[in-house]
Amino acid sequence: MSSIVLDASALLALLNGEPGSDKLTPELLNDAVSSAVNLAEVQGKLVEKGVPTDDAWEATISPLREAVPFGTDQAKLAGNFIVQTRSFGLSLGDRACLALALTLKAPVYTADKSWKNLKLGIRINIIR
Questions:
Q1: What pTM was computed for the model?
Q2: Are 128 and 13 in contact (CB under 8 A)?
Q3: Which fold has domain 4-126?
Q4: What are the tens digits of pLDDT across the range 47-85?
């Protein structure tokens, strides 16, 4: 089974019904995974907006086939990506997402337009 990787920005766009979320079709979401680091970001944003913690977590994981733990291999990749991504202002969460996509050899979906110029050998789909 092939996967797609959702960045926190894509997941938040989906949950909030923002522009571009329509590109995340049910067929794509059947194969959607996300890094535990990105899930922490989404959870935090929802809780900040006043969503009760258990409801926020349920919303965060509901569109996904799988929540992927952030392991040492991904940590090493995410750390190594700092040089290639520094000028684009990518966060640790962004780099964790990219590390997961590279590990899985899967395309990544994001709402962050700055990713379009990344040259990491990862297929990046900008949803808006």
A1: 0.93
A2: yes
A3: Rossmann fold (3.40.50)
A4: 999 999 999 999 999 999 999 999 999 999 999 999 999
Tokens 């522009």, residue located = 19
HEC per residue, the chain: CCCEEECHHHHHHHHHCCCCHHHCCHHHHCCEEEEHHHHHHHHHHHHHCCCCHHHHHHHHHCCCCEEECCCHHHHHHHHHCHHHHHHHCCCHHHHHHHHHHHHHCCCEEECCHHHHHCCCCCCEEECC
How buried is 119 (Cβ within 10 angstroms: 0-12 exposed, 13-18 middle, 19+ buried)? exposed
Q: Return the domain boundaries, the chain.
A: 4-126
